[in-house]
């Protein structure tokens, strides 16, 4: 029995967005439905590649299509018609700011492991080290080559574990050389990293912000189309106090806060596996309750992090308990990115379906 495109679209109303709680058709997440012979081609307004929730929705869509006796062909596309700004960094799907209210809480470690974790899932990822005065990304993700230069004098970022990275640390002659720069020069380098780097197509650009709420951070928030932010803290009250200020900064600049990551939440004894709250417990819960933001994850202290930094601080042992914490964190952040994007689509829903573009990628 044949089915029409309209009938198939009605069937897709059975698929509910688990985060928003409405069906994907009503939310405007179905761009286009076409049936060609025995194949149903569906364009979905998804923008968070390899996010578990969007992959689950995609699987439900496939089930509906197969139940209708058709072969599914899913694609993902969002654009200006969905409320997305493609003037700045047009080849980058999502810009994620990783921040902290103060230094020393493991912000860069979280940013680097987030970038590497998304790349491991299959995404195209870049990592911009915006901490000009403390550029530690090359220590955690050692570049495999020096940066290149295009004929237009744009920087070509090298890769590390598949992640494209750029950092002030690559520009210094010696690792111990300090970046002694005043505000205007810091902003000049920031704009070069933002506008003068040939990132190529990226699903995610992770930006490791400088700690605090200073001028460089504010300029970046005003210059980039930031999808949302992840705030890193530790359980100590001093760190939490600065974290509150950081969240308020994002709120004042209308930048979504995806949630809080509590780093160094406990110490896992490598001998017996017991956990100990060296810096207290439950500190991030006070932030979550006050500002109504999710606790994205708790990352314990563990030797698997390679604290000496000699081989970077990425956790590469798949059997590591810390690796499991990080994988859960990466999935949670990807889901929050996806939810934010789908809400943007639903808020900018149009009556006419979006035309499919040649640059669409398979879901």
TrEMBL record:
Coiled-coil intervals: none
Source organism superkingdom: Archaea
GO molecular function: ATP binding; ATP hydrolysis activity; iron-sulfur cluster binding; metal ion binding
HAMAP family: Mrp_NBP35
Annotated organism of origin: Natrinema soli
Database matches in InterPro entries: FSCA_dom_sf, MIP18-like, Mrp-like_CS, Mrp/NBP35_ATP-bd, NUBPL-like, P-loop_NTPase, YlxH/NBP35
Ranges for region Disordered: 141-160, 340-363
UniProt KW NAD keyword: no
Family recorded in the similarity comment: Belongs to the Mrp/NBP35 ATP-binding proteins family.
UniProt keyword terms in alphabetical order: ATP-binding, Hydrolase, Iron, Iron-sulfur, Metal-binding, Nucleotide-binding
Taxonomy of the source species: Archaea, Methanobacteriati, Methanobacteriota, Stenosarchaea group, Halobacteria
Domain MIP18 family-like per the UniProt entry, residue ranges: 12-66
Annotated residues for binding of ATP: 101-108
Function recorded in the entry: Binds and transfers iron-sulfur (Fe-S) clusters to target apoproteins. Can hydrolyze ATP.
Pfam hit, one: ParA
Protein name: Iron-sulfur cluster carrier protein
Quaternary data: Homodimer.
